[in-house]
Design brief:
It is a single chain. By secondary structure, the chain is an alpha+beta fold. Helix 11 crosses helix 22. Helix content is 43%, strand content 10%. The radius of gyration is 25 Å and the shape is globular. It folds into two domains: 252 residues, Periplasmic binding protein-like II (D-Maltodextrin-Binding Protein, domain 2, 3-Layer(aba) Sandwich), CATH 3.40.190; 313 residues, Periplasmic binding protein-like II (D-Maltodextrin-Binding Protein, domain 2), CATH 3.40.190.10. The protein is built from 24 helices and 13 strands.
Length: 587
Amino acid sequence: MDGGKSILKKDIMKLKMCLCALVSMGLSGVAMAGVTVAETWVNKEFQPSTLSKKQQLDEMKWFIEAAEKLKKKGVKEIKVVSEMLDTHTYESQVLSKAFAEITGIRVTHDLIPEGNLVDKLQASLRSGNSIYDGWVNDSDLIGTHYRYGQTVVLTDYMQGVGKEFTNPGLDLKDFIGISFTTAPDGKLYQLPDQQFANLYWFRADWFERPDFQAKFKARYGYELGVPQNWSAYEDIAEFFTSDIKEIDGRKVYGHMDYGKRDPSLGWRFTDAWLSMAGAADKGIPNGLPVDEWGIRIAADKCTPVGASVARGGATNSPAAVYALSKYIEWMKKYAPPSALGLTFSEAGPVAAQGQIAQQIFWYSGFTASATRPGLPAVDVNGKPKWRMAPSPHGPYWKNGMQNGYQDVGSWTYLKSTPVDRMSAAWLYGQFVTSKTVSLRKSIVGLTFIRDSDIRHAYFTQHADQYGGLIEFYRSPARVAWTPTGTNVPDYPKMAQLWWKNIANAVAGETTPQAAMDTLAEEMDQLMVTLQQSGLKVCPPKLNPQADPNKYLSDKGAPWKKLANEKPGGETIAYEKLMQAWKEGRVK
């Protein structure tokens, strides 16, 4: 970055010319002050950028002018919310300050746990009174927003009353997650703010040790490498936990996860764990007609008709029960004992602390925290000793199924927000995703949203600092890892059912089969309630209950139980995976 360096004379001349032009255009003194402040931010903080400094200042000038219109309507302050991630911390602490200084509209940007955020959003939807002017919530709620009719349809807003507040440089085609925030009606409901995928994480330096490789092959008969199936993952977990046991005097574990009775335990499963086992149907971005939650939709591709196998769903199918069983077994046999008491956010940084050999389900959103100097999993040159790769799949998985999950936190606005305040929050959402600031934000948080940022020379030069993340986001894989789809009619209400039932199984209070049976039944009953509640679009209409054997099949979900759920282990050399990504293949 050259933010702290002196500006070249030609840059100074260009900026002075811009200022003179602004004066001639008759901008107010307040707006002129904003331009001067914007110049400081562009030079000192918003570097590097995919835009030139002149282009950045032009974009900031547009924000200043748009904000002036809203301030004249009395909008002086807005309040927005997002979950607690490095990216959002940067927005809350740095970009909100920049926006306020440049535009004159103050921003309170709250950071709260995701479970609390979903609860507050649900309360606002229920009451018809939005407590925030803007929300960064996962695109997993796209089915909810589409059906309830309480969310501002951004496509309509940008073409109508919000046209004058929509940045001409927004460039929606540059956003890599737009398909995930577009509903079945073809309209945009949310604007991506940050993205990260769940991937396989492993200590490449340990996997490359000749003594470990020889010992692994002698025991299992195949090469120690990136596991392609759950059988190989289990073998590797057993190998490091029971055979290697210690490295450099520290106990090591072949697996890492989390299992605390907490809302985040539900995300561990709704974030495509059943799909990775192979419980869903084939289909990208989500299984069709049965998705990764096990919900079947009708032939109209919109109406949910059941989650239980008895209604044609797969939430309690053999593949789903297998997935839950392996989750519990691996955590209790191969993970640190503390894993059972950790939440999603607490468990994420653990892998990089030096005792974990691999993690099947690791979010790339933790990349920034896993690359900090001084960590045991980072070398003396600041380069990670670990790598990320596609997660292995369970025995029910088949080519053409969802590859894995990707989180897309997105700006969402409710119709109950006064339109001027909503427009100001829309300005802020565009500001923190604008080309002026997005590359710098990507460097800080490593949660990419723009293709232009991913392709920038900065990440070409520094790709070896991120353990495969850049290669992943430059490959087709970035769209093969997908968020929750539109089969889910009410994400906030249905997500609550998952963690409570999973927790019972983790605690040993019930069997995996009983837990998934209860979950499937509760999902069905909730969809009956939703059917009666008057959803505006595609309300559920459940199939009648039938003998589960009517639906269990070897041709589509719900899949019949396999005679052998542990086929032979398969691995691949990491370099071959990287080559596939570089050649434009998913894997």
